[in-house]
Design brief:
alpha/beta, Rossmann fold, six-stranded parallel sheet, 7 helices
Length: 169
């Protein structure tokens, strides 16, 4: 697992994490939009990321999704992996996360988030551990604590999960 940047206090930050939230397009997928001949859209997920999500869940971490777009395949993949909660079609991801935190009795310091685009930057700035992918926009990379050695949709979430195996929650 290669990283472009990892803070010296990674272990300390990760020990406080109780839940991990993931963006979808550009993180769980490569961000490409695939359309069939009848106009139906498809998303491609990497099996290694699914194993990474299972690994995080087996370590006692709750894993959720916050996505700006909505797609039935996201709901299906989340169901297969036991990912809950799943928030789709979200314009303000930080507000959505804060509402969930209030109900869950957790704080932003207890959250790790992996995002890649401008809509993710407010969340990345606010959470206890911010992660991104090497092909993320510059603004997301600048505010993240850690950058995966693999691009979105190609095992980036698995690399993130391996970080938890290395440093714990």
């Amino acid at each position: 697992m290669a990283t472009q940047r990892s803070p010296s206090n990674t272990a300390e930050r990760l020990k406080n994490i109780k839940a991990v939230f993931l963006d979808v397009d550009g993180v769980m997928t490569d961000g490409g939009l695939f359309y069939g001949e009848k106009g139906e859209s498809l998303k491609r997920f990497h099996v290694h990321d699914g194993q990474g999500i299972q690994s995080m869940r087996s370590q006692g971490l709750q894993v959720g999704i916050i996505s700006g777009r909505s797609h039935p395949s996201v709901s299906q993949r989340a169901k297969e992996l036991g990912v809950d909660p799943v928030f789709q079609g979200i314009g303000n991801k930080l507000e959505c996360l804060q509402t969930w935190l209030d109900k869950a009795g957790l704080g932003l310091a207890n959250i790790a988030f992996m995002g890649d685009d401008l809509a993710d930057v407010p969340v990345l700035k606010a959470v206890g551990f911010a992660a991104t992918v090497p092909n993320a926009v510059k603004q997301a990379q600048e505010v993240s604590h850690w950058v995966s050695g693999k691009p979105g949709g190609q095992g980036a979430v698995r690399c993130f999960a391996d970080l938890f195996l290395e440093y714990g929650p």
